Each structure stands twice: as C-alpha cells, then as structure tokens.
Amino acid sequence: MFDALDVRNDDWAKVYAAEIGAVKNPEEFDEFFYSFSDFITMSVKPEAEDIGLLIYTIFKVCRQLLGRGFASRGGIAEGQLFHRNGNVAEGKASAASSMIFGPAFIDAYQFESAHADGPRVILQGKVWQKIEDYKRKNPNTKLTKFFKVHIKRAEDGPAFIDLFADFHTNEYYENHRDLDSEMDRIKNYICESLDESIDRPLHFKKNAQLANEFNLAIRTAEKHAHMIPGSKLPKRSNS
Fold this sequence. Notes:
The protein is 46% helix and 12% strand.
C-alpha cells in the first residue's frame, strides 16, 4: 500500500503530460496530493488538462492498490477548496501542517458515501459535464481519447473511472500491453473478496460490481483465462 502512495505527484504529472501531449508543463498543473491513514485527497484546477491529471493519478493509484489487495472508492466534486501541503519546494518542511477543507471536500465525501455503493470512484455530474464539453469541442486530442476510454457511465447513473481501460487496445492504448500477471493478481483478490462476503449480501453486491467490470474488460481483451468464473459470480437464469 505504501508503495502506491509514496509517489510524488510531480512524477505522475510528468508522465501524464508526455502521454497526452499537454499544453502545460508538468510544473504548471499546481496539483495537491495528500494521504493520511487510508484516506487520499487530491485537488486540481477546474480545467480540462488538470481534470485529466486528476483522473490519471486516481487510475494509477487505485490500480496499484488493487494489485496489492486494497479496493478503493471515492468521489470527485467541483467547488471551493483550501488545500495546503506541509512541504514546500526542494523538500523543505514548512512551519504549517498539511490541511484540506471547504465545500468541495465535503461534497466529494458526501457524494461518495451516498452513491459510490462499492469500490469505484464516481464523478459529480458537473465534473462529468465539463469533460463532455471538452470532448465535444476537442474531438481529436489525445486527452479526449483518454477521457473516452477512462470515464464511463454506470447503469445507476454516475460517471466513474474505468480502472481496467488499459486491459485491451483502444483509441488511447493503441499498443498491446503485457498485463497478464497483474490481471491474475487482481482476479485472485476479487475472488477472495467474493468468497469472504458470501454470507453478507450487501458486501457481496459491492464486490460483484467490481468483478463484473473486471470481467467485461477481460472479455474485451479476449483474455478468457483470467475471467472470474461463474462459481464465484453466479447469475440467475430461466433454465
């Protein structure tokens, strides 16, 4: 878990900026990343490239955690926020401690608590709409392709971050990636979670939500050996 969290956000920004061909330099994103206990917060400016960095970082962190046996849930909201890091340039400690507060922080927490309903990171409607507006106005950018493959709408309404979008080739991930060992680790973790929650229907439902998203990506990638079997994830039929 600590390996996934002990990464400087500047490092994510550099990789992200290079991947999407960002107009901004990595140093210009002005993002804040802070973690305590099992809680992670990140804030960015309400601009398309910055929101993309937020999505990218959440994807990377959540996937690393999932590969280590920790499922994540969360919410993304837009609004006023005060977010101060306790570290300043060149790693020197400041006199002030890290802190975060404001309406956006409360909104994100309440939105996630009420509606995530399982291990997923969901987006407030106005955040999703901002992404949709960018895609409509900029149909051919690499960032639009990133948004298309990583932001999906759930059947129950909210948009969410697809943690398995890179399992198969698509308009953003154009080249095949060897992820078999990671797929196997994630499959084993989800299967264990399903087994452990078999007598707790509400918990099983939440684990099944993640399992179904995983299986959908596995089917699309045609990596059927990694499918979570029906014995772990039963479905009713009329036969």
